[in-house]
Every structure is written in C-alpha cells, then in structure tokens.
Design brief:
Radius of gyration: 23 Å
Shape: elongated
Helix content: 55-70%
Strand content: under 5%
Distance between the termini: 86 Å
Number of helices: 8
Number of strands: 0
Largest sheet: none
Order of helices and strands: HHHHHHHH
Length: 261
C-alpha cells in the first residue's frame, strides 16, 4: 500500500494535480547574472517598489548635482560670493542623498541576513571611481569576491562596502563644502576638487545600489516584499552615526608637508 501511495503522489506531481498546500513552492525567478537581472522585467508590485525607491534617490541626487554644478560655474565665472552661497546648500543636499541611500543599503543587508535572500552580485570596478577611497575599497571588494564562496556572502560584503563608502565619501563632501562656504578653507583648489570627486563617486555608489536593488527584488520571494519595505522604513528613521575612530580634528590631506617625511 505504501508503494502504491508513493506512486500516486509522484504521478500527481508529474501531472501538476497535487493540492497547492502539498507542493513545494519554487524559488523566485532569478537571472543567471547581474546583467540579466538588470535587463529583466519585474512583476508589477516589485516594479512599483523599485521605481518608488529609485525615483526618491534620483531626485535627491539631481538636486545635489544641479546645485554643485551651479556653484562650480559661478566660481569659474569669478562670482566667488555667490559661489560660496550655493556650495553652502550642497552640504545639506548631500545628506538628503546619502542618508536614504545608506538606509536602503542597510535594509538590503538586514533582509539578506535574516531571510537568506541570495541575489546576483558583481565586484566593484575601481575604474568607476575617481577618489582614492573609492578606488581602494573597490579593489579590496574585487579581491575578496574571489575568496568568498557563497553568493550571499559576496552580496553582504558588497552591501557593507558600499554603505561604508557612502557614509565616508558623504562626510568628506560635507566637510569640504562647509569649509568653502564659510571661507575658512586653507586650500580652496583642493576643496573644490574634493567635492567634485566626491560627487562623482557618490553617483557611482548610487548606480551600484540601484543595480543591487533590482537584483535583490528579482530574488526576494513575493511574500517577503512587504517585510523588506518595512525594513527600509525602519532604517530611514535611523540617524547616521559614523564610528568615533573615523573622526579627527586633523584632515590628513591638509597637513603641510614636513621635510624628510
């Protein structure tokens, strides 16, 4: 009788007639690579979530980018006072980009840790960054991606790397912008270059995060979508508090060269 029952169950599975509650739900569709994920269509509900988050982040980036470009153009035109007034605004606009971007990255990492979501991922490319910090972090990401055995560990490492970069580069941008706006910069040329590079690298971090988000939404089960949205909302309310050891009263790139050192 047992053998007959087993045969009946196998036959039912083959015909697709087994009651839904007795079937094993297949994993969400996921492409073979990050490129495939990016090109693929998302189901309507996931697409709505994706577009909502991306539009919010893009709007924040555009406001920062437009204001910084205006400040640079005013400086190049010799309107230094107006340029300082505009660059003052970019400090706050930078936070309006980095805070939700960092929160989204934290939410992606938290959900992957708790629910085991395993999206596709690819190592960061140093060529996509201009600043030393970004290039160094991207190189380390590439090296570690070769020794991390699981897709999940690679995803979590990339999330952590991007989050750290967003927080650190954003802080460097605000420090330079604040000094330029207040007129206390001891090296304005370097500070203008610093905000320009930081702006470029934050844009790269944003693009990487958007690609990660889509791969994640492709992999996450439909029933976990609301849980992920709740995690994002929770992380949006968490203020950024950089580690104390990152703070310093002396910014190393400003130190006056000392003979023999």
């Amino acid at each position: 009788m047992l053998a007959v029952k087993v045969l009946v169950i196998l036959f039912s599975l083959f015909l697709g007639r087994l009651p839904l509650r007795d079937r094993v739900c297949p994993p969400p569709a996921r492409g073979a690579s990050v490129m495939n994920d990016w090109r693929a269509w998302l189901p309507e509900e996931k697409d709505s979530v994706f577009r909502t988050y991306v539009q919010h982040l893009e709007a924040s980036y555009i406001m920062l980018s437009v204001s910084l470009n205006e400040a640079i153009e005013l400086r190049q035109a010799g309107c230094l006072t107006k340029s300082s007034q505009v660059v003052y605004v970019t400090s706050a606009l930078c936070s309006r980009l980095t805070d939700p971007l960092a929160a989204t990255l934290r939410a992606l990492g938290d959900h992957a840790k708790h629910y085991g979501t395993m999206p596709n991922t690819a190592p960061l490319d140093p060529a996509n960054f201009q600043g030393y910090r970004g290039q160094r972090s991207a190189r380390m990401s590439g090296l570690l991606s070769r020794v991390l055995l699981t897709q999940r560990s690679q995803f979590l490492h990339k999330i952590g790397t991007l989050h750290e970069m967003v927080v650190d580069i954003g802080r460097e941008f605000r420090e330079s912008a604040d000094e330029l706006a207040s007129g206390i910069s001891i090296d304005p040329v370097s500070d203008w270059k610093a905000v320009d590079i930081a702006h470029y690298d934050l844009n790269t971090c944003l693009r990487e995060a958007i690609v990660l988000l889509k791969s994640f939404l492709r992999a996450v089960p439909h029933e976990e979508l609301l849980l992920f949205q709740e995690t994002v909302s929770k992380q949006m309310r968490v203020p950024e508090t950089p580690a104390l050891h990152r703070h310093t009263d002396v910014r190393h790139r400003r130190m006056t060269p000392i003979a023999g050192q």
